[in-house]
Amino acid sequence: MVRNRIRGAHLLACAATGIVFVNSGRMLAQEAAPTKPPADTASASQPSTNAAGRADQGSNTEANGIKVRVNYVEVPVVVRDLSGHTVGDLQKENFEIFDNRKRQQISQFRVERIAEDGGSDNSGAPDFRKFVAPARFTAMLFDDVHLTSDTLPQLREASLHRITAGVAPSERVAIFTTSGKLTVDFTDDRAKLTDALRRLKANPVPGSGFRECPNISYEQANLILNRLDRGAKSEAVAEAMQQCGIKDPKMAAEMVMGISERVLALGNESTNLVLKAVLAVIERLSTVPGQRNIFVLSPGFLVSDFEHAEYQVTDIAVRNHVVINALDARGVLTDADEAEEGDPLAALAYATGGTLYHNNNNLDEGVRRLSERPKVSYVLAFSPSDLKYDGAFHKLSVKIQGREKTTVNSRRGYFAPKQATDSVQAENDDISMSVFSRETTRGLPIEMRTQFVKEDRPVAKLSVLAMVDLNELPHGQKNGQNTNELRIVAVVFDRNGKYMGAIDKKVNLKWLEKDARMHAAGKYDFILDSGGYLVRLVVRDSQSQQLFTQTETVEIP
Can you give the CATH number for the domain in which 44 is found? Predict the structure, then answer.
């Protein structure tokens, strides 16, 4: 038995038979031997690993025959006018980006426009009844650790309206909670979603509701212990002496420190639950084939340390193309000190190209508005000058030139990698990102074909065939033959975008020029139950390092 792993799903492969059993959902995959060209060998390769830990995006350049891996930092940017509408007519020249206050050259620029959600493109799929394939995935994350029973009913009703009236056929919705006590994975089953919403309730950290004298808040405890704020400590000591019956200043100070330590520990536990939950949802979204969105509903929380914990989360979200929208459930804020700067909810949203809805009591409108992605966004990329592999945090800022009265929401920072990315990791990252994307890439002369045979059995055999045109395939020369190596990955997702499994092989091709033709490079068979599936084919060659990617929908009656 050989155990392989691609992004959290386990494949148990029997090398002798080529059969693959998948432990998530009922599926059996079998690899058929590829049709051989004049000379052909196939060797198994390790599937791609989780790329969530990468701190850079890479591309290959070539100079004097030496291939160089270039580190790129992607920065999603949303620009709005004073009315809150997205600005969609900006060009590369309108943007300036600064890394630790040092201006950087923008080496890549693209505009992303959200089309009307009418389902995915099923062109090229077999001629039988098609289901509406998932194209957008929305994870609703309720911060039940911080939300109270006073706020939850209104949020629940607003979310129920969203589910019953606002879910497109090509959208899949999941429900998660920061306590982890309520979870519904991505689905288009509205009954499951509404049932989960009706079961939502507050789940504070045990002991967090207990009030001591003096009553020290988490924010105040953070000021006293982490920031050594003498004013905050003096205020608490005065309260202890005036309201708690403590006459000795030294005893009052010791009481303040003890209570602050307990409050800070409970607050840190609550905050860590939120950040871990967001990370877990990002990880779940990193394995779905479509637009990735998180909708955080929270009354806000404090990150008490100086380690940029919220930026570590957004760093991973950006690299996995996850957009985070956030709703501050506190409504209108009357405290003048409640500023957006430093708010973790704002950091989560703005750094990923999302939206923050806050300082408004109309939560129903907030849920509706945040269910929509910005119609236009920009993605800037730059290669940091003099980058050091030290894991340090780099602060980013984006400025707009030639356009007044606009607001900019963008990624606020990134962490430098701790080591350079080698060629093997670069290949795995390219494959992994392509597997869990819906983009179609035609960098190689590959043709994808699918067909299934069911007969009278309760299951069907789905065949995925990768055809390559040897006349057009980039190649090298060895011993008078054309050569190239293809890495071919065939992947299956269920109707809700759940990763079912994959077959990942490397195929060495050798052929003479006179034998160049359309050639079956690989045939992969999956045994599936009835239902709708997304089938993804990713091919990468070793010569040009180009990609072919395509997705087809298949519905087995």
Answer: 2.60.40.10
